[in-house]
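Supplementary Note 3. Input sequence used for the single-chain structure prediction.
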Amino acid sequence: MSEVPPRRSRWRVVLRRWPTALAVGLLAATAGGSSAGGVTPLAEVLLLLPLLYLVVAKIQRREASWPVLLVLVALYLVLRMLDVVAVPAVFATVALAVMVWGAAAGDLRRSGAFQVQALGMIGFGALVLTALVVEPDLGRYLVAAGWFLHGLWDFVHLRRDTVVSRSYAELCAVLDVLIAAQLVFLA
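The predicted structure, written as discrete structure tokens, is reproduced below.
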């Protein structure tokens, strides 16, 4: 028979796993919001995720994960609010600029994190752009697959402790998998 841990130790567990708790809280706070606007916003945000990995890999500063996230989210919100330029076009342009910057610096010739993140950006970008142009039901499943695959991408980076901060990889992995499940089962 196991003992119930004291309240104080339960809070320590939650504090140690704060990124997971935050991911669950974010999903709970936005529950139901994804179906109102269709999958387009979730597809656009999905494009932001590999872009963050690409930028952080280029600057080689894992501690920049959270600030880069804040900048990209702010950019996303401004682009959505202004509704002048398509979000995927801007994110693709930024990704291309970062890849050109990396190529000019020789990062694409060397085997390593930047090369892997560039391939990830291309793969996730192709998936998102395909999801945006196909029939909406198929698009929803493609976006769900993208979120799930990015969750796996995060788990691998968390396990290997590479590219982004551990706290960001944990939050993103949990949130990605939960959003994928929501898209498949609750839509």
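The chain has nine helices and no strands. The longest helix spans residues 136-160.
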